[in-house]
Each structure stands twice: as structure tokens, then as C-alpha cells.
Amino acid sequence: MLILLQKISHALVAHRLDRMRGVRRVLLFCFYALRPSGEVTLDIAEGKVRIDLKDRGQAPYLFLFGAYDESEIEILRAIVRPGMSVADIGANFGYFTLLMSRLVGPEGHVYAFEPESHAYGMLQETIRLNGLANVTPVKAAAGSRAGSARLFLDRKNLGNPSLSEKNIPTTARGGAEEIEVAMLDAYMGQKKLDAIKIDVQGAEGLAFWGGRETIMRDKPVIFTEFWPYGLRNLGTDPKEFVQFLESAGLRCALVHAQSGSLKDVTPETALGIARNRPRGMGWANMLCRKVSSA
Fold first, then answer.
1. Which residues form the Methyltransferase FkbM domain (predicted)?
2. Among 8, 138, 201, 270, which lies 20 to 30 A Cα-Cα from 89?
3. Which of 258, 208, 256, 250 is nearest to 231 (CA)?
């Protein structure tokens, strides 16, 4: 039944009928109703990717539609160029790592940070299946200081682990894992960094603090999740988070979830994103780029 569902979905995608109102919702409902599990390898436009079917995050979209979050894909295609050096922080099983590996080409490089053991194993397999010589996997979280930490797991959305248990929905908490933490500054050293893609469930501030010298020096394009609630749970003031990026010479804009359009924000106005979800738990993607000297 699962393979039949996939074939039906792919046929709809081929004719863009999946864009009709309610079609994707019905397909996803059927996927969840079948309660699939186990690792599989998928063929997508960029190559092969290893996923776990029990994941309720990226996996259903890749299995049914061959892509996840088209607006995010379009932004990465716009900012990641051949020859770039890129950090994928929170690489999960390597979907965006694979995309960025194709975009930077053989002269570029992707450093893929993923601390969680199960996801890291799939990341390694995605790299192997595609022969990605320009990707270095790093089994560590990027943090404000080197050492170890407890990573709290989400048993439903496998790409949703966090260094704060408060950032995991109560009904989805799935234990914890002891992980390694590395500082981006120490890892990169004098290697130039052109872009950062980061989504680490509230630990973005910790990662940036541990990479502040690199960010100040290279002023990389940064594509980050901005989740005030999650940041606060890990000791980062959301306003100061944006202020730091501005102090590095970057201008930040929030990304509209549906259209992908950009809206410039200040440290003060960025906090308004918290209102797009109940109880002030709203979030958005944020794109920060070097301020033009012109």
C-alpha cells in the first residue's frame, strides 16, 4: 500500500496536481495512517538520500513529493554558489547537505554538523551513496564551548532534537543522548566560510557565539531558523541574537513561509514573529547577508 501511495503521489506531482487545494493534506494523512517505519533510500532530483520512514518531519515530503520546503530550496539555490565553503549545522540525514554539495560543486566544500547518532548514520550513508567527496561530516553539535552535552530527542520528528528538553513537545519526548559539542571557530580555524545554513532548535545563538570570530571575519551569508521561544530556553536573548548578526555587518530579513519573500527586520521588529503561533511560540526562517558598502 505504501508503494502504491508513493506512485499515486508521484503521478500527481508530475502533473502538478498535488498543488490543488487539499491534495497534499490527503496524501500525508494516508501516509501517517499507514504508520510506516524503517530506513529506505530515495531517489530525488539531487541524487539519493537515506531516510527513516517513521520520521514525521522531512521524510514524508521526500517520500511522497520528492522535495521538502520549496521556498527554502529556492533560497539556498540563490545564495550558495560554486566554489563556496558552507557549514550545514543541524544536517540531519543530509537532504540539504546533498543539495548544497551539488551547488558548491567540486571546487567548494560542505561541513555537515550532526550530533545525533541515528541521523548521523543516515547522513554518512547519503554521502556514500552519492560519492560526495566535497562533504565532511562532523559528528558534533556546534556550541559556545567544546565538550559534551545532553541532546533531547523527538520520537516523532526525528529532525527536531534540542539541547533543551523544553523545546521538544511533551507528547513527543523520546529520551536523550550524550553528544559531543564543538566550537565553529576552533573547527574552521583560518578556513574561510562563505555561508551557514543552521536549524538546531534554539541552539543557534550558542553556535554563533562559538563561531563569532569566524562570522565577524568572513561575514558569511547566514540562513537560520529564528525561534524566540527556543532561543530563550537555551539562554539566548532573541533581540541580542539579531543585534549580534547586525554587529557582524549583516542585514537580516524574515522569510515568508509560503511565498519565500523577504522582509527586512530590526532586532525590535523581529520579535513579532513569536506571535505567529499560540503562546508566543512562533518562528520563521531568517536570511542575513553582508551589508553592501555602496
1. 88-251
2. 270
3. 208
CA dist 98 and 90 (Å) reads 13
CB of 60 closer than 8 Å to CB of 95: no
Quote the CA–CA distance of 81 and 103 in Å, as a whole number: 6
CB 155 within 8 A of CB 173: yes
Closest to 100 (Cα-Cα) out of 179, 108, 174: 108
* Residue that has been written with the C-alpha cell 553582508 in this structure: 290
Tell me the CATH number at 281: 3.40.50.150
Distance of CA 179 to the CA centre of its chain: 18
Q: Rounded CA gap, 151 and 178, in Å?
A: 6
Distance separating alpha carbons of residues 157 and 154, to the nearest angstrom = 6
In a domain, 46, yes or no: no
Q: Which of the four pLDDT bands, split at 50, 70 and 90, describes residue 280?
A: confident
- 8 A C-beta contact, residue 280 and residue 229: yes
